[in-house]
Structure formats: C-alpha cells, structure tokens
C-alpha cells in the first residue's frame, strides 16, 4: 500500500519551539512541512488562501490571535489539528474545534511518536476506505415492513422519546419502534464514532462541537445532556483524545 504524504504547517510564536517540533516531524518520512509561522495573523492569511492542509500544529498562547481562535477560523481548511501548548486548561475548548490531539509542552517524544503514528494510520485508512459502499446499516422503521438504510457517518444523534427511538442525521430525522439498545448493537462493533453519553442518548463523536459542563453541543444545534452515570465515560474519552501530558524533561516552556 502506498503511504500518503501529509502536508504540515506549524504555528508558534517562539522560533525555538518550531525548530524542536520540526526536528521531530522530520523523523517521519511521510510528513512534509510546507510552512512555519511565528505570527498567527500571517498564518491565518496564508492558510485561508491555500489548498487544504493535512496537519496543523498550533500553539495556543500567542499575541494578536490565540491558537484556539486561529483554529476556528481555518478549521475548514485543515484535516487534523494538533495543539502544542504548556497550558492544560484549554483542552475542552480545543475539543470544540475537533482537534485530533492536545500535546502538552514539554512534549514527550514517545507520546508524539504514538500520536503521529495513529494519525498516519487514520489518514491512510480514510483514503483506502473513501470509496467503500458497504458501510451501512438497516433499521426497522416506524411501520411494519419498513426498513431504513443509514450511513453511520451521517448519524448525528440517537435518542429515545415516548417509547420511540429517533435518529437525527445530516439528511433528516428517522424514527424506529426498535429499542435504543438494539439500534446501538447494529452499529459497527469496531466503530468508535459512537458514544453512549446518557441512558437515552448516543452521539456521533465526529459531530461534537464542544463540551461545557454537563452538556455536549453537536452539529445542527443539538444540545445533549451527559447522564450522571456516563460522566466518567465521557471524560475518559476526552482524555484519551486530547490530554497527553508531557514528561519531566522539558523541551520548551510555552
């Protein structure tokens, strides 16, 4: 299988941090740094007019424009965002722009290698499966003999109300007389896009915009409560995706 070369941009107001990160990126033969910026406003102008970028490595605490604000403005131009920062408190906000990872400075080399390794695998799996047509499920409809074909990537939210299960998708709403447990079991067993966050709610994690307190905000203006018994599951999911604490050996401090 041919491994895709992934284009990378680094934005950090400290040249030293860019140099350290560039050295690590250069150890991956299928990553290519196309540009680096110490000025986030220049990065905004450049990325905004460029073709799609595969990976954006971005600091958070920068003058004139924070990394979070920059990420929001260029999100549509970037496939994967990796924050590199000394500040752990912005992790949930980073999740709001669908960051792939959140690496704390000083960045632990092993964690960096593991993170990039997973990303490369994900990127190449996405390419190889882009044209697959068999990734679908059938759900019983609300009438006898009616079956609904659903594409998992189009599902935003599944929830129960008045003894019915509602499935909200990017193409509209569908109803089924089936139970939410049976609907959940029909999703691909290996498909980690779906997460039970409440006794009555299953979400597609790819559709998350942000998490605030006990509420998850999804695409299409959905607000989903986190059940008391599911808080630990949600936080473990967030930590797995975003929190990669650095080691005690410091490479950089900002």
UniProtKB/TrEMBL annotation:
<feature type="domain" description="HTH LytTR-type">
    <location>
        <begin position="139"/>
        <end position="212"/>
    </location>
</feature>
<keyword id="KW-0597">Phosphoprotein</keyword>
<dbReference type="GO" id="GO:0000156">
    <property type="term" value="F:phosphorelay response regulator activity"/>
</dbReference>
<keyword id="KW-0238">DNA-binding</keyword>
<dbReference type="Pfam" id="PF04397">
    <property type="entry name" value="LytTR"/>
</dbReference>
<feature type="modified residue" description="4-aspartylphosphate">
    <location>
        <position position="59"/>
    </location>
</feature>
<feature type="domain" description="Response regulatory">
    <location>
        <begin position="7"/>
        <end position="120"/>
    </location>
</feature>
<dbReference type="InterPro" id="IPR046947">
    <property type="entry name" value="LytR-like"/>
</dbReference>
<dbReference type="GO" id="GO:0003677">
    <property type="term" value="F:DNA binding"/>
</dbReference>
<dbReference type="InterPro" id="IPR001789">
    <property type="entry name" value="Sig_transdc_resp-reg_receiver"/>
</dbReference>
<dbReference type="InterPro" id="IPR007492">
    <property type="entry name" value="LytTR_DNA-bd_dom"/>
</dbReference>
<dbReference type="InterPro" id="IPR011006">
    <property type="entry name" value="CheY-like_superfamily"/>
</dbReference>
<dbReference type="Pfam" id="PF00072">
    <property type="entry name" value="Response_reg"/>
</dbReference>
<protein>
    <submittedName>
        <fullName>DNA-binding response regulator</fullName>
    </submittedName>
</protein>
């Amino acid at each position: 299988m041919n491994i895709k070369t992934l284009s990378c941009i680094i934005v950090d107001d400290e040249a030293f941090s860019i140099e350290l990160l560039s050295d690590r990126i250069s150890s991956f033969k299928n990553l290519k740094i196309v540009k680096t910026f110490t000025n986030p406003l220049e990065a905004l102008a450049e990325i905004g007019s460029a073709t799609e970028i595969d990976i954006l490595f971005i600091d958070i605490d920068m003058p004139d424009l924070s990394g979070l604000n920059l990420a929001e403005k260029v999100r549509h131009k970037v496939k994967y965002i990796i924050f590199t920062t000394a500040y752990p408190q912005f992790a949930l906000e980073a999740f709001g722009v669908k960051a792939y990872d959140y690496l704390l400075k000083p960045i632990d080399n092993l964690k960096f290698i593991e993170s990039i390794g997973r990303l490369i695998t994900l990127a190449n799996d996405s390419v190889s499966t882009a044209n697959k047509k068999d990734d679908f499920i059938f759900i019983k409809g609300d009438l006898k003999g009616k079956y609904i074909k659903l594409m998992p990537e189009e599902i935003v939210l599944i929830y129960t109300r008045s003894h019915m299960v509602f499935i909200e998708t990017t193409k509209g709403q569908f109803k089924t007389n089936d139970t939410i447990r049976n609907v959940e079991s029909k999703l691909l067993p290996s498909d980690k896009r779906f997460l039970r966050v409440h006794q009555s709610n299953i979400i597609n994690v790819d559709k998350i915009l942000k998490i605030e307190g006990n509420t998850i905000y999804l695409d299409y203006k959905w607000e989903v409560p986190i059940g008391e018994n599911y808080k630990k599951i949600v936080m473990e999911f967030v930590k797995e995706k975003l929190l990669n604490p650095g080691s005690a050996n410091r490479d950089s401090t900002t």
